[in-house]
Write a structure and sequence with these properties.
- Keywords: Membrane, Transmembrane, Transmembrane helix.
- This is Glycerophosphoryl diester phosphodiesterase membrane domain-containing protein.
- It comes from Jannaschia faecimaris.
- The structure is a single chain.
- 34% of the residues are buried.
- The protein is 77% helix and 0% strand.
- α2 packs antiparallel against α3 and α8 runs antiparallel to α9.
- The two termini are 13 Å apart.
- It has one domain.
- The protein is mostly helical and 251 residues long.
Length: 251
């Protein structure tokens, strides 16, 4: 099954090139971890607390959280572009600080927003259609079906259009129409790939839902599983682009 082969390719890309993966990601991710830990250590009583308008968090926590998110986004862009370029072009960092491809990262950010927006619109359209068609006939007993349908629609659109991300990172920008042509007829492959990626990521997060742990341990565990999820997600897009667009073998 092609979806499984692509997932395995994304996984082995990390395991077979672990040192390169660390060089691409260690410094950027350490910055994100440091920012997140600073917030967790400074305001441990507010970490994970739902927002309550009647009991708002202190300004320092809000600003710290926003700053941590910005650092996290920057780190994700830095790592994603670097890993795409390593996998597709063989570009390696000479040291432990990866190359900061500012223009490529900016373009990657824009393409990511566009891809997520298209996926969100697809999800909304499918959910709305299923709600209109099913709820009047079957009532609230089928309310989960629109949500599931929206999820699959979002995954399908995201991965079909998402090949523009590794393409742009490699300096070979694609248009959305070109991406749709390249991934035409691969709906089953994309759904399997998305389910495997999301499933593994959720399984890694499962211990946090089962057992309450110290806030610092919990934060560190989230960062470790977040790194795996990020590298795996970027890797699946890389494998999809490499195979469907550039015709690279998976064996």
């Amino acid at each position: 099954m092609l979806g499984w082969k692509l997932f395995v390719r994304a996984l082995t890309l990390i395991t077979d090139n672990l040192m390169a993966a660390m060089k691409v990601s260690l410094v950027p991710y350490a910055l994100a971890v440091g920012a997140g830990l600073w917030v967790a250590l400074s305001y441990p009583e507010w970490v994970g607390v739902p927002l309550d308008p009647e009991n708002p968090p202190p300004p320092g926590f809000v600003l710290g959280t926003m700053g941590s998110l910005l650092v996290g986004v920057l780190a994700s862009l830095w790592i994603s572009v670097g890993w795409h370029r390593f996998a597709l072009l063989g570009e390696q960092s000479g040291g432990w600080v990866p190359r900061l491809n500012g223009n490529l990262m900016l373009g990657y950010f824009g393409r990511t927003l566009l891809t997520f927006l298209m996926a969100l619109l697809a999800a909304i359209a499918v959910i709305t259609m299923l709600v209109v068609l099913l709820v009047p006939l079957f009532g609230e007993s089928v309310q989960a079906i629109p949500a599931v349908g929206g999820f699959f629609a979002a995954c399908l659109v995201f991965y079909r259009i998402g090949v523009i991300l590794p393409a742009g990172a490699a300096g070979k920008p694609m248009k959305m129409g070109e991406a749709l042509i390249a991934t035409k007829g691969q709906a089953q492959t994309i759904i399997v790939l998305a389910l495997l990626t999301v499933g593994v990521t959720l399984l890694l997060r499962l211990p946090l839902l089962i057992e309450e742990t110290n806030v610092i341990i919990s934060t560190l565990y989230q960062f470790v599983t977040g790194w795996i999820g990020l590298m795996l997600g970027v890797g699946t897009l890389t494998a999809l682009y490499g195979h469907l667009v550039e015709g690279r073998p998976l064996d």
